[in-house]
């Protein structure tokens, strides 16, 4: 992945030229020549407000053969938040974009190195980039270039156009089906397992290695800032369900601060924003077959069950949460243990399914808090009420 500051950062779609695209692609695609670029315009999906995602096709040659690349440039947009929020969040945008730049530039290459080491030797067609051996970080969008212009603070990430490959987010914030949850949980298992391998290889905590990863102190500060927003969301929930006074009273008293030790040996890299607008699926005749996790602006170092709690509380219907939770958690655990293997002894490798289920129930509190902070995007509905009532029965709320 190219990160050299010699490559200019485009300020708008007009600056995406053939020469610029050729510079961006040359590290991953040596010998490529780009002769033309067709900019299609903004394809920003969901309700994301901080970036303008510009789709474009690049045409050229490589090794004597004609090539066409379908790509996107994710550019910082300082104007878009003002259309949704009452005040500018420019400083916060810059910080989050810096996290994503460093994630793609620093963490992803090392995760890829671990994945290449851990994967099993298996024959495949070298032209098939979708094969899991050819693309061991299949759940992360391919990023060719990630950098920030120090004068304007506009960031750019050039990635494969997932939409052109048949990926899409769920329309209108619909909950994920059992099959979609299985795919998303499998992707998280891959992320958590590879990050654990990387930490064992480095011999140092990932939060100490990468300053783009938010730690427990960062999360505490974020929760302090988010406290008013959370309480406003609880009031909105109370207005939607006026007969739930006891539940609302309990929600109002929840301790928003994270409670885990950074010395906990189970801690792994989390996507930490894994809700419906940041999960893209590919389908074959309405059956989900593949998944990508997008928007890596808030990676965190925390227990895997924090991530799973968010996945369920923010994305699952009542039916999936109640009737298919155990099967999805078992699928996650199976995938995680397959990735971890038996070559090394660690806390995660001895992590039983029953321990995972118990920790998940306890950590569902984090999923509840996250869901309420996102209530503007994920409105309260009867399914959320039933999920909260079940979590209350566990003694968590």
Which key features would you list for this structure?
single chain, 397 residues, alpha+beta, Aminoglycoside 3'-phosphotransferase, Chain: A, domain 2, 5-stranded antiparallel sheet, 3-stranded antiparallel sheet, 11 helices, disordered N terminus
On the 0 to 100 scale, the average pLDDT is 90
Sheet of most strands: 5 strands, antiparallel
CATH fold type of the largest domain: Aminoglycoside 3'-phosphotransferase, Chain: A, domain 2
Roughly how many Å is the radius of gyration? 21 Å
What does this structure look like?
Residues 157-342 form the CHK kinase-like domain. Pfam families: EcKL. The structure is a single chain. The protein has 397 residues and is α+β, with helices and mostly antiparallel strands. It folds into 2 domains: 13-164, no CATH class; 166-393, Aminoglycoside 3'-phosphotransferase, Chain: A, domain 2 (Alpha-Beta Complex). It has helices spanning 18-25, 90-118, 178-202, 206-209, 216-240, 245-252, 304-315, 318-323, 325-340, 353-373, 382-393, and strands at 32-42, 51-62, 65-76, 143-148, 155-160, 167-168, 268-270, 279-284, 287-293, 300-302. The strands form 3 sheets. It has a 5-stranded antiparallel beta sheet. A hairpin with a 2-residue loop joins strand 2 (51-62) and strand 3. Helix 3 runs antiparallel to helix 7. The longest helix has 29 residues, at 90-118. It is globular, with a radius of gyration of 21 Å. 39% of the residues are buried. The model is unreliable at 1-5 and 121-133 (pLDDT under 50).
